[in-house]
Amino acid sequence: MNNIKYYNDSLAYDFSMFMPREKKEDNIVKMPKAKKRTKAAAKSVSSTVSALLVSAMLLGLLCGNIYFRLKTNELNTKINRTKTQIEALKNEQTTLEVEIERQLSYSNIELEATEMGMRKRDRSQIKYIRVNKNNTVETNDGNTVNSND
Predict the structure, then answer these.
(1) How far apart are alpha carbons 57 and 38 in whole angstroms?
(2) Measured between alpha carbons, how far is 85 from 93 in angstroms, rounded to an integer?
(3) Model's pTM, two decimal places?
(4) CA gap 61, 69 in Å, rounded
(5) Average pLDDT of the chain?
(6) Dist CA 70 CA 64 (whole Å)
C-alpha cells in the first residue's frame, strides 16, 4: 500500500490496514514446490546418468577384453608358427649331422683311401734306425733318447 499520502496529508490512522482482508476466490492451481520437484528430477537424472556410465564402462571392458583376447590369439599363433619352424630346422640339422657322419665314417674314408691307391701299413714299410752307444736322439717334445734306452 501507498502510505506516503498519510505522511503528507494528515496524521490520522488508517484502520483499514488492520482489518481482515477478504479472500478472493480465483481459479488458481497450486503447483508443487520447486524443491521437491528438483530433488526428484535430480534423482532421476543422476540415476540415468549413473546407469549410462555403468553401461559405458561395461561396454568398454567387454570391448577391451575382446581386443586383448584377439591380440593374445594372434601372438599365440605366431609363437606356434615359430615353434614349428624351430622343430623343422632342428630336424634338418639332425639330418645334416647324420649325413656328415655318414660321409666321414671310417668305412667311407677307408674306401676312398683304397680307391686312391693307399693300403694298410705292413712290416715291409717299417724302417729301423740303428745308433751307436754314444749317439743320442732328441724327440719333438724335447726328450733325449740314448741308444741304451
Answers:
(1) 28
(2) 12
(3) 0.41
(4) 12
(5) 80
(6) 10
